From TrEMBL, chain A:
Functional description taken from the UniProt entry: The central subunit of the protein translocation channel SecYEG. Consists of two halves formed by TMs 1-5 and 6-10. These two domains form a lateral gate at the front which open onto the bilayer between TMs 2 and 7, and are clamped together by SecE at the back. The channel is closed by both a pore ring composed of hydrophobic SecY resides and a short helix (helix 2A) on the extracellular side of the membrane which forms a plug. The plug probably moves laterally to allow the channel to open. The ring and the pore may move independently.
Similarity remark: Belongs to the SecY/SEC61-alpha family.
Assembly mode: Component of the Sec protein translocase complex. Heterotrimer consisting of SecY, SecE and SecG subunits. The heterotrimers can form oligomers, although 1 heterotrimer is thought to be able to translocate proteins. Interacts with the ribosome. Interacts with SecDF, and other proteins may be involved. Interacts with SecA.
Protein's name in the database: Protein translocase subunit SecY
Source species: Actinotalea soli
GO cellular component: plasma membrane
Transmembrane segments: 18-34, 68-95, 116-135, 155-176, 188-208, 214-234, 310-333, 374-391, 397-415
UniProtKB/TrEMBL annotation, chain B:
NCBIfam families: secE_bact
Keywords of this entry: Cell membrane, Membrane, Protein transport, Translocation, Transmembrane, Transmembrane helix, Transport
Location(s), subcellular: Cell membrane; Membrane
Transmembrane segments: 56-89
Function text: Essential subunit of the Sec protein translocation channel SecYEG. Clamps together the 2 halves of SecY. May contact the channel plug during translocation.
Pfam families, per database record: SecE
Primary subcellular site in the record, as a coarse category: membrane
Taxonomic lineage of the native organism: Bacteria, Bacillati, Actinomycetota, Actinomycetes, Micrococcales
Name of this chain's protein: Protein translocase subunit SecE
Domain of life: Bacteria
Amino acid sequence: MLSAFVRAFRTPDLRRKLLFTISIMVIFRVGSFIPTPGVDYGNVQQCVASMDGTNDLLGLVNLFSGGALLQLSVFALGIMPYITASIITQLLRVVIPRFEALHKEGQQGTAQLTQYTRYMTIGLAILQSTTVITVARNNLLFPECPVPLIPDDSVTTIVLMVITMTAGTALIMWLGELISERGIGNGMSLLIFTSIAATFPGAMWSIAGGENGLTNFVIVMLVILLVIALVVFVEQSQRRIPVQYAKRMVGRKMYGGSSTYIPIKINMAGIIPVIFASSLLAIPGLAAQFGDQTAGWVIWLSTYVAAPEAPLHIALYLVLIIFFAYFYTAITFNPDEVADNMKKYGGFIPGIRAGRPTAEYLDYVISRITAPGSVYLAFVALIPLLVFIWLGVGANIPFGGASILIVVGVGLETVKQIESQLQQRHYEGFLR
Amino acid sequence: MSESAGAAAAGAEGAGDGSRPGDRTSRRGIFGRIALFVRQVFAELKKVVRPTRSELITYTTVVLVFVAVVMAFVTVIDLGIGLATGWIFGG
């Protein structure tokens, strides 16, 4: 296995890609430390140090920015606006016919869609940076911390901060795209991966240092290991729908005649439903932040909806995950399109007629296979949460189901990409 | 009645790959339809190709190693940058 890593670095092409990716990750981390102008660095450090555990409501956002949010750094927003924007663009395909048309147009249409996503990212970044700065200015980021984070809150400073954070997000977006283009793996997910990985050691430390730390630490590690194995297991399982290609002559050459299969993963939606469900569930908490802290609805919201251990919160989380799993699968896999393509190239599923019956069959299989898939997703997202609440080590530490799913998913994907690059050169990879 | 019919339908559905989605489901009651759906789900799950034991172990280790390497790398980088920023901005 180690020799595979060495070989990966020996291959000039792959080495360049790996080094490129690594250096972009370094740039990303550097930006997460540089404070935004207008912020009192010393005070922020003092506040971060004085705080135990993470802020309940901003926990997830902070996690996805690799702890940069609480530092109010240049990259405070992290990649979150870009994720949200791309999810929204994908969801809008259902609503706006033009988006769907663009998607079907092929490469040029996709480029146009990416362009829209970028504009939306900037808009969202302005919105979110304004929110974050408002929260910081009203001293809600660290409610117990007495020193001001932003000493000079004149309009010029605030505008400068908003512009800086928005520019930071734009830069992250570009970095992510650069990784996708010239590096290894999907840039966006790799950057989230980096941010989450950055918060892991601290969280481990805080668990190990807490009361009966060693037992808790061992239990948490075991749970994580089990969840990782489970995720790998499910991600690697496929329902294979056999497809037979008819033989045909094109000119003087014979094509087709082969039999393959359409691999259908149990969980086709990936981690998007979890990300989306958690971001939606973060909204009531954020709303409560802005309200009067003693008002009835604020108290109700924060005890029953925003708190991660509240039964209503857990139920909502489950329902949202299952809903988005179906929804996102429906968006990403279009049975009609697949059936059409198969027909075009002379493929058919044995026993099913081409065209509409094929589409119906695919739809049948997918709607049946997504049911356990969505339940699995909800299960993986919840189990760590429940275990951590039971252990009393805090639900918002970064080992929640969402982050484990992301980490394992991205890890698998990236390793497989490196693997395929190695195999192109007839090397044995990591996965023998 | 709907139970046995559902079982028969599911049996037929599970028998061959070329089963058609049940279009007679509209005549059942809501519970019958749910039961049928669950049976169909299990029928599909049986056709899922699962990774072998050794595959599972390799992939899990590879993911673990990858995550550990990235984590260690990022931690080291973070320590360095943290010291540097503290030195520059801490004053």
